[in-house]
Amino acid sequence: MTEIYIEQPTIDIKIGDTVSNSRIVEEFKCSPQGGMRRSKTTNTLVLVSKHVVSKSKVYDDKTIGNIYHYTGQGMKGDQSLLFAQNKTLAESGTNNVNVHFFEVFKEGEYIYMGLVNLADTPYQDVQDDEEGNARKVWIFPLQLAAKDNPQSYIDHGLVQEVYEDQERIAKSLSITELEARAIKSGSPASSRKTHTRTYYRSPFIAEYTKRRANGICQLCNQPAPFTDKRGEPYLESHHVIWLSADGPDMIENTVALCPNCHKRMHVKKERADVEKLSALYKTTN
Ligand SMILES: [Zn+2]
Ligand SMILES: [Zn+2]
């Protein structure tokens, strides 16, 4: 087998960097539009996977572990594997075109994930086009070339924000629209590695907090609704000022709540509840 070496331009964007669309155009000499942008000048194909949601956008590229299931080009009718950049991508194992991958979770913010390779042969799926007509699309399973999974550069908060936008859209739909959407967003479920901030909570503080409460929820003042396997009243330790809001992990900032009240504190965040709990161990300073 003969390997043809074609010099690739050095890309001045680092994996994990967030850049603007104009920076991409400048760097790759490609079009400012579309999800698949071919540049003959730099012999590259730039792929953009947009996760930003809107009411009309039904499909999102699925990410399953470190494989991206990238939908090909063609807005209307059946997609063809011989069409424009679908062909470039399908042949990317042999055509010496480097394929660069960007993900967008927020409008205008492109996160560079580095080079991608075809992980498997492209396959077909049925998706609705813009006018709601079912048609065949090509899905390209792509894997990131970088050894250290660059997905870990993506902050969990970004993925969470997209999810929350989807929740808002879901709430705004009628039951009929919702049913249609629910049926289309089937399995397998998307999963990805992200960068998460984990707060260390002292188990001693948590245990002390529960023991101190003596089996009584400190918000509703009712006994714990059930006992655990060891027969002890089940309560949960909660930080009055959340750790994510820089609340201290200290016994003055923790209370023991029944699961119901605990959920209530996180869902409703009612001021009167917070005040009641924060008054419990208020130290004079
Ligand atoms: Zn309670
Ligand atoms: Zn809590």
Count of strand segments: 11
Bound molecules: zinc ion
CATH class of the largest domain: Mainly Beta
Low-confidence stretches: none
Tell me the CATH architecture of the largest domain. Answer: Roll
Shape type: elongated
Cα(first) to Cα(last) distance is 77 Å
Mean pLDDT: 88
Total separate domains: 2
Structure description:
The structure is a single chain. With 285 residues, this protein is an alpha+beta fold. The protein folds into 2 domains: 18-184, PUA domain-like (Roll), CATH 2.30.280; 203-280, DNA Binding (I), subunit A. It is 25% helix and 23% strand. The chain contains 7 helices and 11 strands. It has helices at 21-28, 84-90, 156-172, 175-184, 203-213, 259-267, 271-280; strands at residues 18-19, 36-39, 44-50, 62-64, 67-71, 98-106, 109-118, 123-128, 134-144, 236-239, 254-257. Strands 1, 2, 3, 4, 5, 6, 7, 8 and 9 form a 9-stranded mixed beta sheet that branches. Strand 2 (36-39) and strand 3 form a beta hairpin. The relative contact order is 0.10. The structure holds zinc ion (2 copies). One zinc ion (ZN) binds at residues 217, 219-220, 222, 257-258, 260-261.
SSE blueprint:
Blueprint: E1 18-19, H1 21-28, E2 36-39, E3 44-50, E4 62-64, E5 67-71, H2 84-90, E6 98-106, E7 109-118, E8 123-128, E9 134-144, H3 156-172, H4 175-184, H5 203-213, E10 236-239, E11 254-257, H6 259-267, H7 271-280
Parallel strand pairs: 3-6
Antiparallel strand pairs: 1-7, 2-3, 4-5, 5-9, 6-7, 7-9, 8-9, 10-11
This protein binds zinc ion (2 copies).
One zinc ion is lined by residues 238-239, 262, 265-266.
